[in-house]
Structures are given as C-alpha cells and as structure tokens.
Amino acid sequence: MATAKKINPMVKTALELGPVLAFFAAYVLLKDKTFEVGGQTYDGFIAVTAGFIPVLVICTLILWRLTGHLSKMQIVTLVLVVVFGGLSVWLNDDRFFKMKPTLIYLIFGGLLGFGLLRGQSYLRVVMEEVMPLEHEGWMILTRRVCAFFIGLAILNEVIWRTQSTETWVSFKTFGLTIAIFAFFMAQGKLFQKYGIEKTED
Predict the structure, then answer these.
(1) Residue 40 CB: number of other CB atoms within 10 A?
(2) End of a domain among 72, 92, 112?
C-alpha cells in the first residue's frame, strides 16, 4: 500500500469535513423549498442530497490526488453515499440516504467483530501508526469500538425513524461527530496504560 503524502492539516480537514458542513448549511437554507425537475417535485432535502454527492466525490478525489491514499472508511463512505444518495434522488425518497450511516457503522462494526472472533484486531491494521498500543490494549479498544459502532447504527435508526428530517440532519452533522470525539477522549486511560512510546533514530 502506498504511503500517504503529508499535506496541510487545514486542507485535509476542509476536504473531509467541508462537504458535510456544506450539506448542513444548504439544508438549512433550502429545507422549506421545493423544486420542479422534469415534471417531478423534489423537496429541499432531496435537492441538497443531489448536490452533496458530486461535492463529496470531488473532495475525495482531490484528497486522493494530494495524499495518494484513501482509508477504507473513506472509500466505503463514498460508495454508500453515491449508491444510497443516488437512490434517494432517483426514487425521490429520503429514507435511503438516512439509512447510509446505519450501514456504514454496521459494516465496520461487523468487520471488527469478525476480527475479534478470530482473535485479531482489525482496528490495529488501520490505526497502529497513529496510536501504537500493546496487543491487549488493541483488543480492548477494538471491542469497545465495535460495540460503539453497533450502538451508533441503532441510534441512527431510532433518530431517523422517529424524529423529523431537521433533527436527523443536525444529529448526523454534529451529534455523530461529537459522539465519536467524546468516545475516543474517554479512552485516555487505556491509551496511557497500553501505549507504546515510539523511539526515533
């Protein structure tokens, strides 16, 4: 696998989070509007989803061009956005796009769980360079992340099926991000106990 090239962290953050924030801003502006295209009426959510897909594709391609690397999660996310976002626009049904986070978290939670059944930490494969840990630390963290992802999948299903679209958009944009940040911040003691200090020549 090719090593990712270093780029300005601000540029990387803008390319990764920019499309999501743009989706939220566009939805706030267009949520109460409707659009007539080819004799079909689309609400603001569907229109914003249609715009979000090419924006995410372009930003992901730029990121790949600059770094020469995309993570497995970025690739899977892009594919699911194109497929389920495309279905939502094509069928004029927002349910497909709202199910996307559920599938993302179930896929990664399932993969981590499969690895645990084999006595392995697949999380270690993708994060070891960022957070070097002892084997036991990786196994504990993987179990926690697996359970966390399954929990997020269930939570997303509950939110989009029981709450308004506006509530779901806010949850997807901010709630999920805050939850992931809080989760990893809560692992501080584990990182301290099982962390391995890197030695540099």
Answers:
(1) 9
(2) 92
